[in-house]
Specification:
There is one protein chain. With about 270 residues, this protein is α/β, with parallel strands linked by helices. It is about 40% helix and about 15% strand. It is built from ten helices and eight strands. The chain has helices spanning about 20-30, 40-45, 55-70, 90-100, 115-125, 140-145, 155-170, 180-190, 210-215, 230-250; strands at about 15-20, 35-40, 75-80, 105-110, 130-135, 175-180, 195-200, 205-210. Strands 1-2-3-4-5-6-7-8 form an eight-stranded parallel barrel, surrounded by six helices. Helix 7 packs parallel to helix 8 (about 180-190). The chain binds 3-methyl-2-oxobutanoic acid.
């Protein structure tokens, strides 16, 4: 079983991938991925929303519970959806607590900023492990004007480093760094004791994360830092096409898919 503390002791890069359902979680878990993130990327990856903002706490809880049912070994981290944390302190605790109490997650991830330092400390004190997330935080897409690179000036990079230190001190057990220059991520990684997990942050983070549907070949438009490692969507299309053709051609169901019940015949059509 992967634990939040155990991540620090791995002598190889940490592997993290998103999943949103039990079926996929089982496959990801069987493959030996260390951490399954039930990302709010479920919004655009599988729920049909334009971005992550509409994802509700109910959707996140339900998908997290499904992933927990499918995973045996991986650490399951529930991503807190837009406005489910930070609006009101007791609501934040209740919502984050639901992920552990109701859905069975091991930890939560908060898209972080100056406003999440105290929240991270409070949740950690209460026994809710927190993974922080700095750099590109997609829930701020409307302020950022797109999914743009972050930390591209010395001042911006120093701000990320300072926030990373604040979150480490507040008790975060790991830090996701998204879409920041590789040299900035390397310096932040060297400055922290907690592991950094990069997405578009170069090779020197302590681990890597990608969106599972991008890796598997469902992503229609991949971010520049992602890579497609398979074509599951192509396999699905082929299977569905083959099924449709078999039904339309009268080849399915075949004799082995049906059975005859002897003695059940001569039904009275008027009954
Ligand atoms: O929601 C998500 O999938 C994420 C990862 C991209 C880190 O936050």
């Amino acid at each position: 079983m992967t634990t939040t503390r155990g991540l620090r002791d791995l002598d190889r890069p940490i592997t993290m991938l998103t999943a949103y359902d039990a079926l996929t979680a089982r496959i990801v878990d069987d493959a030996g991925i260390d951490v399954i993130l039930v990302g709010d990327s479920m919004g655009n990856a599988v729920l049909g929303y334009e971005d992550t903002l509409p994802v509700t706490i109910e959707e996140a809880t339900s998908h997290t519970a499904a992933v927990v049912r499918g995973a045996e070994e991986a650490l399951v981290v529930a991503d807190m959806p837009f406005l489910s944390v930070g609006v009101d302190d007791s609501e934040t605790v209740r919502n984050a607590g639901r992920m552990l109490k109701e859905a069975g997650a091991d930890a939560v991830k908060l898209e972080s900023g100056p406003h999440t330092v105290d929240l991270t400390e409070r949740l950690t004190q209460l026994g809710i492990p927190v993974m922080a997330h700095l750099g590109l935080t997609p829930q701020h897409v409307n302020q950022l004007g797109g999914y743009t690179r972050q930390g591209t000036t010395t001042e911006a990079a120093e701000e990320i480093l300072s926030l990373a230190r604040d979150h480490e001190e507040a008790g975060a057990f790991a830090l996701v760094l998204e879409h920041v220059p590789a040299n900035v991520a390397a310096e932040i990684t060297a400055a922290l004791d907690i592991p950094t997990i990069g997405i578009g942050a170069g090779p020197d983070c302590d681990g890597q994360v990608l969106v599972g549907t991008d890796v598997m070949g469902f992503g229609e438009e991949l971010p520049p830092f992602a890579e497609q490692f398979g074509d599951v969507a192509g396999e699905m299309r082929a299977a569905v096409d083959a099924y449709r053709e078999a039904v339309e051609d009268g080849e399915f169901p075949a004799a082995e898919h049906s059975h005859i019940e002897e003695g059940v015949d001569d039904l009275d059509p008027t009954e």
